[in-house]
Design goal:
Layout: E1 8-21, E2 24-37, E3 41-45, H1 52-59, E4 67-72, E5 75-76, H2 82-92, E6 93-97, H3 108-113, H4 123-136, H5 152-164, E7 170-174, H6 182-199, E8 202-206, H7 210-213, E9 218-223, E10 226-231
Parallel strand pairs: 3-8, 3-9, 6-7, 7-8
Antiparallel strand pairs: 1-2, 1-4, 4-5, 9-10
Helix pairs in contact: 4-5, 5-6
Length: about 230
């Protein structure tokens, strides 16, 4: 999955993840070995319960594997404590979710700024970064609007701006178009694709929508904890 031009941002070697449930042990990921190149655009598809969310949690440093090694930019997650994992997420990873996860009482700009509060940046620098992020998703003039004053597509743009305002290395999107109509879906994917092209981020999207998945360069299919990889000519 890696290529000769880009070093891998992710390396997973013999990764398994198991959960104990009432009916016994469930293996969400089963001996997965893959690499994801820095700057790649990746789709993840598979049936419900097939391991998509588990894989995304590992890629987002939100969980550790039960067995095997997950490396992010050369650092193995097993070697990091909880605080170090939190620092890694804050520094390198942006998250976009299906449900937007905006704070309803904050304006669009204030929602975006929440991602910068832990950074220790001055208020003026935070404001500059927030405005640049909103402009990058086409909402430069909507910073004062509350989420309730924005359409679903605009709310997702705010969520994307919040994810990229800290200039992450990786953008992880979990069903980013799941709550949107077809036209808005295409607009949001185009926004993500533009950010991927212009900023050189690694973009990884979990999606049930084949029209979204086919826009990616690399395609992961997960079923029964197993992962298969294919590449497009894009």
């Amino acid at each position: 999955m890696s290529n000769s031009e880009q070093a891998p941002i992710y390396k997973l070697v013999a990764v398994s993840k198991t959960y104990k449930q009432k009916r016994g042990v469930v293996k969400a990921l089963d001996d997965v070995t893959i690499e994801i190149s820095s700057g790649d655009m990746v789709s993840i598809q598979g049936p419900t319960g097939g391991g998509k969310s588990t894989l995304l949690q590992l890629l987002g440093a939100l969980d550790r594997p039960s067995a095997g090694v997950v490396e992010i930019d050369g650092v193995a997650l097993e070697n990091l404590g909880d605080n170090e994992l939190a620092d890694l997420r804050a520094e390198k990873i942006g998250f976009v979710f299906q449900g937007f996860n905006l704070i309803p009482t904050l304006s669009a700009a204030e929602n975006v700024e929440t991602a910068l509060v832990p950074s220790g940046l001055s208020a003026s620098i935070r404001a500059e970064k927030v405005q640049a992020a909103l402009e990058s998703v086409g909402l430069g003039d909507r910073g004062s609007h509350l989420p309730s004053e924005l359409s679903g597509g605009q709310q997702q743009r705010v969520a994307i701006a919040r994810a990229i305002v800290k200039s992450p290395t990786v953008l992880l999107a979990d069903e980013p178009t799941g709550n949107l109509d077809e036209q808005t879906r295409d607009e949001i994917v185009s926004v993500l694709e533009s950010l991927w092209r212009e900023q050189g981020i690694t973009l990884i999207m979990v999606t049930h929508d084949s029209a979204v998945a086919k826009r990616a360069k690399t395609h992961l299919k997960i079923a029964g904890g197993k992962v298969s990889v294919s590449n497009s000519s894009k």
